[in-house]
Protein backbone atom coordinates (compact mmCIF):
# COMPACT_ATOMS: atom_id res chain seq x y z
CA UNK A 1 0.00 0.00 0.00
CA UNK A 2 1.35 3.45 -0.89
CA UNK A 3 1.71 6.05 1.84
CA UNK A 4 -0.29 9.26 1.34
CA UNK A 5 0.88 11.04 4.51
CA UNK A 6 3.88 10.60 6.75
CA UNK A 7 5.28 12.66 9.60
CA UNK A 8 8.94 12.35 10.54
CA UNK A 9 10.08 13.43 14.00
CA UNK A 10 7.36 16.06 14.25
CA UNK A 11 7.86 18.30 17.27
CA UNK A 12 5.95 21.35 18.50
CA UNK A 13 7.46 23.43 21.28
CA UNK A 14 5.75 26.21 23.20
CA UNK A 15 7.22 28.48 25.87
CA UNK A 16 5.54 26.46 28.60
CA UNK A 17 6.39 23.00 27.25
CA UNK A 18 6.34 20.53 24.37
CA UNK A 19 2.97 19.68 22.81
CA UNK A 20 4.42 17.12 20.35
CA UNK A 21 7.67 15.26 20.78
CA UNK A 22 9.28 13.43 17.84
CA UNK A 23 6.04 12.04 16.38
CA UNK A 24 6.33 9.85 13.28
CA UNK A 25 3.17 8.36 11.78
CA UNK A 26 2.41 6.65 8.46
CA UNK A 27 -1.01 6.82 6.82
CA UNK A 28 -1.56 4.51 3.86
CA UNK A 29 -3.77 5.54 0.95
CA UNK A 30 -7.45 4.52 1.24
CA UNK A 31 -7.37 3.61 4.94
CA UNK A 32 -9.12 4.96 8.02
CA UNK A 33 -6.36 5.93 10.47
CA UNK A 34 -7.63 6.17 14.05
CA UNK A 35 -5.68 8.70 16.11
CA UNK A 36 -6.38 7.96 19.75
CA UNK A 37 -5.31 9.62 22.95
CA UNK A 38 -6.60 11.26 26.14
CA UNK A 39 -7.65 14.90 26.04
CA UNK A 40 -4.50 17.05 25.84
CA UNK A 41 -2.42 14.26 24.27
CA UNK A 42 -1.46 16.40 21.27
CA UNK A 43 -3.93 15.08 18.68
CA UNK A 44 -5.28 18.48 17.56
CA UNK A 45 -1.78 19.95 17.51
CA UNK A 46 -0.62 17.18 15.16
CA UNK A 47 -3.60 17.69 12.85
CA UNK A 48 -3.16 21.47 12.81
CA UNK A 49 0.47 21.04 11.71
CA UNK A 50 -0.58 18.58 8.98
CA UNK A 51 -3.09 21.14 7.64
CA UNK A 52 -0.54 23.97 8.01
CA UNK A 53 -2.81 25.82 10.43
CA UNK A 54 0.14 26.15 12.83
CA UNK A 55 3.90 25.82 12.16
CA UNK A 56 5.98 22.90 13.35
CA UNK A 57 9.09 23.40 15.49
CA UNK A 58 11.02 20.40 14.13
CA UNK A 59 10.50 17.48 11.78
CA UNK A 60 8.84 16.97 8.42
CA UNK A 61 5.39 16.31 6.97
CA UNK A 62 5.42 14.28 3.74
CA UNK A 63 2.38 14.22 1.45
CA UNK A 64 2.34 11.87 -1.54
CA UNK A 65 6.11 11.31 -1.16
CA UNK A 66 7.16 14.95 -1.10
CA UNK A 67 7.43 17.66 1.54
CA UNK A 68 3.98 19.07 2.27
CA UNK A 69 3.58 22.38 0.43
CA UNK A 70 0.87 25.08 0.50
CA UNK A 71 -0.70 23.70 -2.70
CA UNK A 72 -1.10 20.26 -1.11
CA UNK A 73 -3.54 21.67 1.45
CA UNK A 74 -6.08 21.95 -1.40
CA UNK A 75 -6.09 18.14 -1.49
CA UNK A 76 -6.87 17.91 2.24
CA UNK A 77 -10.32 18.44 3.75
CA UNK A 78 -10.47 18.97 7.50
CA UNK A 79 -12.69 19.68 10.46
CA UNK A 80 -10.50 20.49 13.45
CA UNK A 81 -12.37 21.36 16.65
CA UNK A 82 -15.55 22.94 15.17
CA UNK A 83 -16.85 23.24 11.60
CA UNK A 84 -16.78 26.88 10.41
CA UNK A 85 -20.49 27.12 9.56
CA UNK A 86 -22.38 30.32 8.77
CA UNK A 87 -25.45 29.93 11.04
CA UNK A 88 -27.71 32.27 9.06
CA UNK A 89 -27.19 30.45 5.76
CA UNK A 90 -28.72 27.22 4.47
CA UNK A 91 -26.60 24.11 3.89
CA UNK A 92 -26.54 24.91 0.16
CA UNK A 93 -25.54 28.53 0.76
CA UNK A 94 -22.74 27.51 3.15
CA UNK A 95 -21.27 25.35 0.41
CA UNK A 96 -21.90 28.02 -2.22
CA UNK A 97 -19.58 30.37 -0.29
CA UNK A 98 -16.76 27.83 -0.53
CA UNK A 99 -17.32 27.04 -4.21
CA UNK A 100 -17.14 30.78 -4.95
CA UNK A 101 -13.95 31.25 -2.92
CA UNK A 102 -12.22 28.20 -4.40
CA UNK A 103 -13.66 28.50 -7.90
CA UNK A 104 -15.32 25.05 -7.73
CA UNK A 105 -18.21 24.07 -10.01
CA UNK A 106 -21.50 24.54 -8.14
CA UNK A 107 -22.72 21.18 -9.45
CA UNK A 108 -20.52 19.70 -6.72
CA UNK A 109 -22.81 21.15 -4.02
CA UNK A 110 -25.75 18.81 -4.62
CA UNK A 111 -23.34 15.88 -4.86
CA UNK A 112 -21.78 16.42 -1.44
CA UNK A 113 -25.11 17.33 0.22
CA UNK A 114 -26.45 14.01 -1.02
CA UNK A 115 -23.35 12.20 0.32
CA UNK A 116 -23.97 13.52 3.84
CA UNK A 117 -27.79 13.16 3.64
CA UNK A 118 -28.52 16.90 3.79
CA UNK A 119 -29.98 17.24 0.30
CA UNK A 120 -33.54 17.71 1.61
CA UNK A 121 -32.90 20.55 4.09
CA UNK A 122 -34.10 23.23 1.63
CA UNK A 123 -34.36 26.70 3.15
CA UNK A 124 -33.71 25.56 6.72
CA UNK A 125 -30.93 27.68 8.23
CA UNK A 126 -27.85 26.00 9.70
CA UNK A 127 -28.58 27.50 13.14
CA UNK A 128 -31.74 25.36 13.21
CA UNK A 129 -29.81 22.14 12.52
CA UNK A 130 -29.24 19.46 15.13
CA UNK A 131 -25.65 18.93 16.25
CA UNK A 132 -25.42 15.83 14.03
CA UNK A 133 -26.64 17.79 11.00
CA UNK A 134 -24.11 20.55 11.68
CA UNK A 135 -21.35 17.95 11.89
CA UNK A 136 -22.44 16.43 8.57
CA UNK A 137 -22.55 19.90 7.00
CA UNK A 138 -19.00 20.45 8.24
CA UNK A 139 -17.97 17.21 6.54
CA UNK A 140 -19.71 18.33 3.33
CA UNK A 141 -17.69 21.57 3.50
CA UNK A 142 -14.51 19.53 3.90
CA UNK A 143 -15.48 17.32 0.93
CA UNK A 144 -16.41 20.08 -1.53
CA UNK A 145 -12.88 20.29 -2.98
CA UNK A 146 -12.75 16.49 -3.61
CA UNK A 147 -9.90 15.89 -1.12
CA UNK A 148 -7.60 12.89 -1.22
CA UNK A 149 -7.31 13.06 2.58
CA UNK A 150 -10.10 13.90 5.04
CA UNK A 151 -9.21 14.84 8.63
CA UNK A 152 -11.91 14.63 11.30
CA UNK A 153 -10.95 15.82 14.79
CA UNK A 154 -13.28 14.50 17.53
CA UNK A 155 -16.29 14.44 15.14
CA UNK A 156 -18.60 12.62 17.59
CA UNK A 157 -18.24 15.19 20.40
CA UNK A 158 -21.67 16.01 21.80
CA UNK A 159 -23.56 13.73 19.41
CA UNK A 160 -26.37 11.47 20.61
CA UNK A 161 -26.23 7.72 19.80
CA UNK A 162 -28.21 8.20 16.56
CA UNK A 163 -25.86 10.98 15.42
CA UNK A 164 -22.84 8.82 16.24
CA UNK A 165 -24.27 5.89 14.27
CA UNK A 166 -25.01 8.16 11.25
CA UNK A 167 -21.48 9.57 11.35
CA UNK A 168 -19.96 6.10 11.60
CA UNK A 169 -21.88 4.96 8.51
CA UNK A 170 -20.85 8.13 6.64
CA UNK A 171 -17.16 7.55 7.42
CA UNK A 172 -17.43 3.93 6.25
CA UNK A 173 -19.12 5.09 3.03
CA UNK A 174 -16.47 7.74 2.32
CA UNK A 175 -13.70 5.24 3.01
CA UNK A 176 -15.39 2.82 0.61
CA UNK A 177 -15.13 5.51 -2.07
CA UNK A 178 -11.35 5.56 -1.66
CA UNK A 179 -10.98 8.68 0.50
CA UNK A 180 -8.20 8.37 3.08
CA UNK A 181 -9.45 9.44 6.52
CA UNK A 182 -7.66 10.40 9.73
CA UNK A 183 -10.16 10.11 12.57
CA UNK A 184 -9.07 11.62 15.87
CA UNK A 185 -10.95 10.71 19.04
CA UNK A 186 -10.70 9.82 22.70
CA UNK A 187 -13.68 7.41 22.30
CA UNK A 188 -12.02 4.04 21.76
CA UNK A 189 -15.16 2.09 20.85
CA UNK A 190 -16.00 4.39 17.94
CA UNK A 191 -12.53 4.33 16.43
CA UNK A 192 -12.18 0.61 17.03
CA UNK A 193 -15.22 -0.13 14.85
CA UNK A 194 -14.01 1.69 11.74
CA UNK A 195 -10.24 2.21 11.83
CA UNK A 196 -7.85 0.08 9.78
CA UNK A 197 -4.81 1.34 11.66
CA UNK A 198 -4.36 2.87 15.12
CA UNK A 199 -1.97 5.49 16.43
CA UNK A 200 -2.01 6.26 20.16
CA UNK A 201 -0.71 9.63 21.33
CA UNK A 202 -0.06 10.34 24.98
CA UNK A 203 1.59 13.43 26.46
CA UNK A 204 2.86 14.46 23.03
CA UNK A 205 4.51 11.10 22.27
CA UNK A 206 3.41 8.45 19.78
CA UNK A 207 3.16 5.54 22.19
CA UNK A 208 1.84 2.99 19.69
CA UNK A 209 1.13 2.52 15.99
CA UNK A 210 -0.20 -0.65 14.37
CA UNK A 211 -2.99 -2.35 12.43
CA UNK A 212 -6.39 -2.56 14.12
CA UNK A 213 -6.62 -6.34 13.96
CA UNK A 214 -8.81 -6.92 17.03
CA UNK A 215 -11.04 -3.99 18.06
CA UNK A 216 -12.29 -5.96 21.10
CA UNK A 217 -8.81 -5.72 22.65
CA UNK A 218 -8.28 -2.05 21.81
CA UNK A 219 -9.33 -0.79 25.23
CA UNK A 220 -6.92 -3.19 26.96
CA UNK A 221 -4.11 -2.09 24.64
CA UNK A 222 -4.90 1.59 25.23
CA UNK A 223 -4.98 1.28 29.01
CA UNK A 224 -1.79 -0.80 29.02
CA UNK A 225 0.03 1.92 27.05
CA UNK A 226 -1.30 4.81 29.16
CA UNK A 227 -0.42 3.01 32.43
CA UNK A 228 3.06 2.14 31.09
CA UNK A 229 3.61 5.84 30.22
CA UNK A 230 2.54 6.88 33.73
CA UNK A 231 4.93 4.35 35.32
CA UNK A 232 7.78 5.49 33.08
CA UNK A 233 7.18 9.08 34.22
CA UNK A 234 7.44 8.09 37.90
UniProtKB/TrEMBL annotation:
Annotated Pfam families: ABC_tran
Gene3D superfamilies: P-loop containing nucleotide triphosphate hydrolases
SUPFAM superfamilies with a match to the protein in the record: P-loop containing nucleoside triphosphate hydrolases
Sorted UniProt keywords: ATP-binding, Nucleotide-binding, Transport
Domain of life: Bacteria
Family matches, as InterPro entries: AAA+_ATPase, ABC_Gallidermin_ATP-bd, ABC_transporter-like_ATP-bd, ABC_transporter-like_CS, P-loop_NTPase
NCBIfam families for this protein: galliderm_ABC
Family: Belongs to the ABC transporter superfamily.
The protein, known as: Lantibiotic protection ABC transporter ATP-binding subunit
Organism field: Lachnoanaerobaculum umeaense
Amino acid sequence: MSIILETKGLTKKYKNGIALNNVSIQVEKGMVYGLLGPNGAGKSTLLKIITRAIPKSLGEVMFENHLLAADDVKKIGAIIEHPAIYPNLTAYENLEVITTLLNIDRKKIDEVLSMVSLNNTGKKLAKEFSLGMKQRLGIAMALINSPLLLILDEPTNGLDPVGIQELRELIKMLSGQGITIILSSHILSEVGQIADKIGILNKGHLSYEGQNTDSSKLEDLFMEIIIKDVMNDD
